[in-house]
Predict the 3D structure of the following.
Amino acid sequence: MKRPSDAEARRAVPPVICYPNETLPFPDMALYAAARAGATKVSETLVPAREAACFRAEAGQFFRISSVEGPQVGDLNLWNAQDLSERFYSGKSRALHGTHLSAGERMWSSFPTLRPMATITEDTLGWYGIDGFGGSVHDVIGTRCDPYTGNLLSGAQYHHCCHSNLTRALADETGLSLGEAEGHVHDVLNVFMCTGFTRDTGQYFMKASPVRPGDYLEFFAEIDLLGALSACPGGDCSTEHSSDVAACHPLLVEVFAPSPGAVDGWQSPAPNGYDRSHGRGAP
């Protein structure tokens, strides 16, 4: 192709942040920390390797995802516990915060509510930052390993990928059919996964997760939540995902309730204030 004479000038135009986030409602991290200090465990769920499991956390509680036996990544879905149509919106969370999430950042819900579902309060991998390859942890760019892409690329019929794991777990938890449950499974927060984009081709890459037993990612539930977590069949995703060969380990989800009065004055975020008229009067 012919290179235009002003090619370098066009390439040199500086970028502009699409969604400056300084005006986002800021989480009260001091309140969360004080509430967490006196919290007690109310439930725990061990997610088996290459499988998924559901858990519930009430508004004002904390939930923690931990590595317990070996390096392992997990694919996380969140829904409003009373309304599955309100679910985690990875694309908007990425647009508001960046490609990877850490402490002080939030998992936002889908339209039309677009409100915080959960706030990350602690991240033991926060030290990792962005490595020399452009990789970081806890991404909101990967969609989840799924049987459809696997079939497209290799003709395989593989059922323990994260999409299928999450579908089975949600169906078991809610009594929905597999077909109904699958419609609610959505793009994920890739917990502990180390990913980025190659500089030369712009392709999504993964590399060995830096997570080790004892590491965790902890959240404050901003609304009543139903969660599903898949212990990815790629293990630490150092070589492949959707695999029966990779070393895989369980993940632990624990839920903690603050002591009475610890979150007095806090309330769940209201649904987004847009009037939904879309320029044509009442919705």
Q: What stands out?
A: DSSP finds six helices and 13 strands in the chain.
